[in-house]
Amino acid sequence: MRRPPHAEPPRTVALRVLGPTDGTLADGTSLALRGPRHRALLGRLVVARGRPVSVADLSLSLWGEDPPSGATGAIRTFVGDLRLALEPDRPPRRPARILTTAGDGYALLLPDDVIDSRRFERATGRAAGLTPREAERSLAAALGLWRGTPYPEAGDATWAVEERELLTGLRDDAVERRAAALLALGRPDEAVPTLRSLLARSPLRERASLVLARALDDSGRAAEALEAIDAVRGRLAALGLEPSRELDGLRTSILRHERPREDVDPFARVAEASARITDAHSRLRLESTVGLLRTLAVSGSTGLVEAREQRSEIVDAVDGLGDPALAARVIGGFDVPSIWPRSDDEGASAAVAAAALRALEELGPEALTARARLHAVVAVELRGTRTRTGRASAVEAVRIARELGSAELLCFALSAAVVQCCHRPGLAAERDGLAAEVVDLARRNDLPTFHLHGLLVRMQSATALGDLGEAASLASAVDALADRHERPLARVFTRWNAAARAAARHEHPAEARYREAAARLDDAGMPGVAEGLLPLALVGVRGDETRLDDLFAGAYDPWLAPLRHARAGETAAAATLLDDVPDPPAGLLLEALWSLVADAARLAGHPQATERSREALGPARGELAGGATGMFTLGRVADRLS
């Protein structure tokens, strides 16, 4: 997220909260922090992530429901002491720049890179999609930041307990992922001690038990590997749960001494053979590569980026061969569905759509399967553009697929229809109906990629319609299916959905959950999803009167900017922006962006913008603004219509 230049706080302090709360000044001098309550107050402000915390909330955080009579005065004294510690050279009467007064409370303004917990979150998020060597180094460095229990001075205060749970959950994930990287690097002995420590803390982590068993087996300790497997099987059985097929499969393999041959990679050998035998621009090579690209696109962030780049090259190559049937097979063979109606590379998407339309013009009417696939590609690539061509192509793809009776083809066509079904607000129920059919078809025909797509769209729709319990259930189903079929990108969306549900229920710390989810999204290879999402989400967890000066929403800022000015009391500037604000682009952010306009119009007293937003939002009266994304909410649309 980009900050306005004036909002960048000073970089003179480093704080550590992954253990006893302390810190240093720029010259390496330790902060002159006093007793436990001073440190607990500092920790509470760190957790707020720059948001103001009222004196009343600080009192509740430090003393609970029964604060002493002098609590307010004590907090002000603590703040004065902390200001002196954080900015010891600040001249008298000059306003504090780090621990600032904000309304009836205080805010701690520091960049993420000077707080160890934020650095830890970012490092663990960025490790996804790296090579095993890079991931191991990144995760080892992140885990090295831990010195003990976070925020120990706060005891069992609710805010501290929740933040500890969040951070320790990330730490345990990092331990597990680093151990898996060590195995991939042929260093199983190093993985065993950390996994044993993790399982001592969290004995029901089946994935950790699986990795431990593999590490032990790779170290020549098959008996201990079987003990590790049987231990977790027993714990799961005590809870009435079945072990995964992967765990049982490893147990059987160890018992039979059928260890996989690590030195043989069939995928690499097949790819090498194909490259050796076929010409670089042969039709056979072009067609066979599409299958590899489909695999890359769902394998993780690095694979997604690589697939996107390579696909453009292949489409360019096949488009110049003058063979519409081949073009249809190559262009239409990339049947990877999207749940986000904005392209990660709009130029490349337009080029693919144009190539598909040219192939359609040259194909005969009898080539129904090829035509259906090409129409679906056009619909997917033109998502978010409001073109009639995109929606008409989706309709035609579904019509032909139903006529042909192919489950896989119909799933592709329906998934294309989903991303075209967001040209106006209020279509969550319609998208859910399409996705429900995808889920049913995919489940019955063993099509995991489309099964995941349908579940994710249904999770989005349930969130939009305010059925948070159903959204949670669908998110759990997504995680289970994604783990089974090695689809790591799905968890990016379910983590955001967990944050959105927490925000909708006003659970603390919603902002921290959003930021943790954003750290993972930053490196997921999906810039079309990531841009502007965190700032929009943070609007929903900040109070109605809170200034938004630190939030810039990238391509979506034209709809946030009026509210930013209105919240700052600059109603004339807000009104000027509202005079010219365009209709939001088609997509899952429609309800959210129109709601931002409605909120700004109310504060600025702009009747025309109020009427425009109300007219647009009317069909979405029963939805949560932003909920269509499945990733954040801005409250009820109905509240903007009253």
Structure notes:
With 642 residues, the chain is mainly α. The chain has 4 domains: 110 residues, Winged helix-like DNA-binding domain superfamily/Winged helix DNA-binding domain (Arc Repressor Mutant, subunit A); 139 residues, Serine Threonine Protein Phosphatase 5, Tetratricopeptide repeat; 223 residues, Serine Threonine Protein Phosphatase 5, Tetratricopeptide repeat, CATH 1.25.40; 112 residues, no CATH class. It is 62% helix and 3% strand. The chain has 29 helices and 5 strands. The strands form 2 sheets. A 3-stranded antiparallel sheet has the order 3-5-4. Strands 1-2 form a two-stranded antiparallel ribbon. Helix 4 packs antiparallel against helix 5, helix 8 packs parallel to helix 10 and helix 26 packs antiparallel against helix 27. The radius of gyration is 27 Å and the shape is globular.
Count of DSSP strands: 5
What is the name of the CATH class of the largest domain? Mainly Alpha
Describe the largest sheet.
3 strands, antiparallel
Q: How many domains, in number, for the residues? A: 4
